[in-house]
Amino acid sequence: MGIDRVEMSDAELVRRVRAGDTGAYGALVARYRDRLGRYAVHMVGDREDAEEALQDAFVRAYRSLARCDDPERFGAWLYGILVNRCRTVGARASRRRKLFVHEPESTAGGSTGADVVDRLEWDDAVNRALARLAPEHREAFLLKHVEDLEYERIAQLTGAGISALKMRVKRAREQLQRFLREAEHV
Amino acid sequence: MFEHAEDELIERVIRQLRKPVAIDEGLDARVMREIAAAARPARQRPALVRRWPLLAAAAAVAGLVIAQPWSHGSGVRSDSYQFVLLAPQAASVALVGDFNDWDPARSPMRAAHSGLWATIVPLAPGRYHYAFLVNGVEWRRDPAAPAALDDDFGAPSSVVTVGGS
User: Fold this and answer.
1) Is B119 in Cβ contact with A142 (below 8 Å)?
2) Residue A78's pLDDT band (boundaries 50, 70, 90)?
3) Residues of chain A with CATH 1.10.1740.10
4) Cβ neighbour number for residue A95 with a 10 Å cutoff
């Protein structure tokens, strides 16, 4: 009886959750929250929307745990759910921004005065440039360069072909460079 | 030369984006609460609502809540801990404590062999009060852990310190 610190693999935690130990799912949430959260925040842009997507992904994964064919690769499976949730939440957030507020690039892009860039921190400049990318370009860039996934894996997650993904990443790199150079020279 | 400079710019962007991002501290709790709510029979909810705010409030008044691992922020490491209780006659056992807002639905224990019940929870470093809820009504201290000193709040509980501090 009592308490023991335990080192458990994803597969073991998944097995326990499937057997009715709901609390074990908390260990999986704690294990993956920060890494998946980083992707969601960068992909969706708005922190509140990103956390909604992340929470939704965790809950959906729990409800669909029986369909996780390879519990050793729970993290990869969860990533796939999050990528889809970010697409849905991101699209909704984008529509909302278009309806109610100005797009952020209107201030970062070029015509608001030479002092703008001086006031922007580097973090803001990067986030604004990232937000200007097309969602599919942003998605491919983040999965490849920030989450460090192989193209084969990204293709499985996104449903896009490898050639298309390479082109998206290339376009994303070119556009990020252009947007950041523009910001430097405003 | 120009291409090299462009690559450096992108590498700088990537380094920036790879930095940890702080996630709202309540996300873990919200996920577990949503899962628990979906699994919990509706008729049980009023009883739970009556009981855990009292316990949580009592612990907070006594200054005993030092950390809340279900709601820790980014960068705080959580390890997995297994809680075990021998209760051969029990029909159900749940783990309740500071780490799950004293909500039995969030950490139901699973019956293993020979009347042994177990569950795993992630805990960040800190000191926590906890107890076992047997058959939904009987509060038990952990016989293998130090007793909390505030049993006079109405429910026996134990104390665990994680992280050696």
Assistant:
1) no
2) very high
3) 1-101
4) 10
User: What phi-psi label fits residue A160: left (phi over 0), alpha (psi between -120 and 50 degrees) or beta?
Assistant: beta
Map tokens 């429910």 to a residue: B155
Q: Distance between CA atoms of A167 and A136, rounded to whole angstroms?
A: 11
Q: Integer distance in angstroms from the first to the last C-alpha of chain B?
A: 54
pLDDT tens digit string along B6-38?
Answer: 788 999 999 999 998 888 778 988 898 888 776
Q: What is the DSSP letter of A72?
A: G
Is B121 near chain A, with CB under 8 Å? yes
Of B21, B85, B107, the CB nearest to A22: B107
Task: Say whether B119 sits in a helix, a strand or coil.
Answer: strand
Phi, psi of B115 (to 5 degrees): 75, 15
> How far is the alpha carbon of B136 from chain A, nearest alpha carbon, in Å?
16
Shortest CA gap B153–chain A (Å):
23
Pick the CATH number of A108-186 from 1.10.390.10, 1.10.10.10, 3.40.50.300, 3.10.560.10: 1.10.10.10
Query: Are residues B103 and B96 in contact, defined by beta-carbon separation less than 8 angstroms?
Result: yes
DSSP states along B63-111? T-----GGG--TT---EEEEEEEE-TT-S-EEEEEGGGTT-GGGSB-EE
- Per residue in A100-113, pLDDT (tens digit) is 444 444 444 444 44
What architecture is domain B2-162? Sandwich (2.60)
A26 reaches B (C-beta below 8 A):
yes
Provide the whole-model pTM: 0.65
Flag if B13 and A176 touch (Cβ within 8 Å). Answer: yes
Provide the 3-class DSSP secondary structure of residue B116.
strand
Backbone angles phi, psi at A184, to 5 degrees: -65, -35
* A146 contacts B144? CB cut-off 8 A: no
Which stretches within chain A are classed as H helix?
A: 10-18, 23-44, 47-63, 74-100, 105-108, 116-119, 122-132, 135-141, 151-158, 162-184
Quick check: A10 and B86 in contact, CB under 8 A?
Answer: no
